[in-house]
């Protein structure tokens, strides 16, 4: 199966930048602490943090934002490449 490409030849998931690591630093919280607060494994949070996730549930995103007291736009950015 071929990956869909945008006009510039980049995969669509390359257009969303995950800045979870920056929010963790701003909130002075570790990935382990966030994992405990939201009930998501460290492995899955790590996949999200490194930008390797292909999708995220709204409920997961909501729990992360609640735990970090932030908005979705604080951790996900659209990058027009």
Question: Which key terms come to mind for this protein?
Answer:
81 residues, 48% helix, 434 Repressor (Amino-terminal Domain), two-stranded antiparallel ribbon, 2 strands, 5 helices, mainly alpha
Please give the structural blueprint:
Blueprint: E1 16-18, H1 20-27, H2 31-38, H3 42-49, H4 58-68, H5 72-75, E2 76-78
Antiparallel strand pairs: 1-2
Give, in spatial order, the strands making up the sheet with the most strands. 1-2
Number of helices: 5
Total count of strands: 2
The SSE order reads: EHHHHHE
- Low-pLDDT sequence parts: 5-11
The name CATH uses for the topology is 434 Repressor (Amino-terminal Domain)
What does this protein look like?
This protein has 81 residues and is mainly alpha-helical. The protein has one domain (13-75): lambda repressor-like DNA-binding domains (434 Repressor (Amino-terminal Domain)), CATH 1.10.260. It has 5 helices and 2 strands, in the order βαααααβ. Residues 5-11 have low confidence and may be disordered.
Quick recap of the structure?
By secondary structure, the chain is mainly α. The chain contains 5 helices and 2 strands.
């Amino acid at each position: 199966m071929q990956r869909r490409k945008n006009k510039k030849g980049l995969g669509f998931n390359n257009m969303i930048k995950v800045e979870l690591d920056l929010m963790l630093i701003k909130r002075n919280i570790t990935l382990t602490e966030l994992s405990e607060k939201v009930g998501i494994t460290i492995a899955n949070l790590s996949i999200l943090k490194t930008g390797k996730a292909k999708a995220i549930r709204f409920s997961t995103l909501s729990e992360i934002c609640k735990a970090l007291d932030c908005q979705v736009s604080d951790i996900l950015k659209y990058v027009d490449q």
